[in-house]
Amino acid sequence: MSRKRSERKPFGIDFLHDPTLNKGTAFTKEERDRLGLRGLLPPRIFSLSEQEKRIREHYKRKTADLEKYIYLISLQDRNETLFYRFLLNNIEELMPIVYTPVVGQACQEYGHIWRRPRGLYISSKDKGHIEDVLRNWSSKKVGIIVVTDGERILGLGDLGANGMGIPVGKLALYTACSGVHPSLCLPITIDVGTNNEKLLQDPLYIGLRQYRIRGKEYDEIIEEFVMAVQEVFPGSLIQFEDFSNLNAFRILSEYRNRVCCFNDDIQGTAAVALGGIFTTTRITGQKLSEQKILFLGAGEAGIGIGDLVVTAMREEGLSLQEAQLKCWFVDSKGLVVKSRDNLQEHKLHYAHDHEFLPDLLSAVKTLKPTILVGVSGQPQTFTQSVVEAMARINERPVIFALSNPTSKAECTAEQAYTWTNGRAIFASGSPFDPVTLNGKTYVPGQGNNVYIFPGVGLGVIECGAKHVTNEMFSVAASALAREVSEEDLSKGCIYPPLTKIRDVSVAIAAVVAKVAYKDGLATKPEPEDLVEYLRSTQYQPVYESYV
Ligand code: NAD
């Protein structure tokens, strides 16, 4: 009879095959003696930093981005400490590989680059047994679950079970960016099928070969999953990720007051964008409530940002209606206005009493927004005419081209700066290189959700919050804006450098936890020095001694 995992005592080769324990050539002489590793490793003992040099060499040899991704995931599968050490020490360089844009390419080809399983797959065939599936996970204590059903992966659409790359990547960022211990992180993909014909025809596709389940049966699977999490991992935070907007808004409103959860595409995006907007007001010297924001795209990201902007404007004294009137949306059919038929429910608050305008350019010219936010997933939709119109209306036009990956951005950083003669305050979803124009170098900000979700998650789990509230995201946005230095601003960059991300995350975690304590949502006692306490919980990628 096989032994249960919890009863198993690793010895000898097991140490080398378990990425959470493995130190490779760094096992000391004493450890090698005690753990039965003599002879299983070459005699020379290396330090962690020497090992890191070797990893850098391996990594440099990979010329294609996808190969770099595969290499990093294999390192994570081999030696977790070394993986996080390398990731944390090179976060700016590796972020686009571990996460957007390269993770998108990895998801598109997941079945083809498949090596080892990572995360937990729950399929519609597991209906009625989801609790059992969760109990198969190796760790009995889980703090954060990132879950997707793969229907709207980045701006790439339905990738079915291949979407697993997203929860895996996001949780690696939780550990690297806010220091949540890797053993507390659980990536999950719920496979209810895919409507992606290319994947259904792909002989190496890893998911169920069926069309997506919809309606009552889908809802029952989600309900069973959420309830099973409460049983098996009570107190954990569920982060919904890359669900289509058909389900994302419904799921969020169903569960946000029942369990501890949030939707990163709606609320995380909203906070990172609001943080960026707060920072632009430091440059323009205006108040948030003086802004008029025009969105291209009225989906999860757009409506999420709009709703949080409204929350923040109300804190500046506007009424709900006044604040909503500051946010305007153009979707695939044109300006969202009252007279339009069959508008989806989430757009109704922003369907203003105004004549219908068929396209973005006429909306810019008529409404005269101060800020333009692209969350449409449609590349090159911020045309030269649109950007020039923004520059005619505003001394410092704010242009956020947030669609991911890079190939989907509404315009490039270079276009935004060139078409406005360097006056644009630009941010994007995926990274762009700095741009030099007339001798001045502009550093575009990346409105990456990674500035927000790791800090929010850390704050929530460390105070044991029962729910995640909108106010938590609004205070997170303000905290993010406070972390931008004058030096960052002078380069036109409205987000702090990623090298500061652990400090940023702690600052955000602290304000989030404070809201939970204030509102009676925390289940853990409040530490005397919250910031100090949060720092003390952060995972550090250093080897543990086994002797
Ligand atoms: P979604 O599918 O929920 O919404 C997309 C919206 O765009 C819909 O309202 C749709 O009607 C609209 N749209 C489609 N074609 C259009 C067109 N030609 N003109 C105008 N509108 C059009 O998707 P989402 O979750 O809102 O994400 C949208 C984009 O934002 C994606 O590319 C995603 O990668 C990006 N995003 C960026 C960040 C970030 O930068 N931090 C975070 C989340 C999402």
Instruction: Assign an overall shape.
Output: globular
The total strand number stands at 14
CATH topology-level fold name of the largest domain: Rossmann fold
Relative helix content: 40-55%
Computed CA radius of gyration, to the nearest angstrom: 24 Å
Give the overall average pLDDT: 96
> Strand order within the widest sheet?
8-7-6-9-10-11-14
* Poorly predicted residue ranges: 1-7
Per CATH, which architecture of the largest domain? 3-Layer(aba) Sandwich
CATH superfamily of the largest domain: NAD(P)-binding Rossmann-like Domain
How would a textbook summarize the main sheet?
7 strands, mixed
CATH domain class name of the largest domain:
Alpha Beta
Proportion of residues in extended strands: 5-15%
The set of bound ligands, ions and cofactors reads:
nicotinamide-adenine-dinucleotide
- The DSSP helix count reads 24
- The class by helix and strand makeup works out as alpha/beta
End-to-end Cα distance: 31 Å
How many domain units? 3
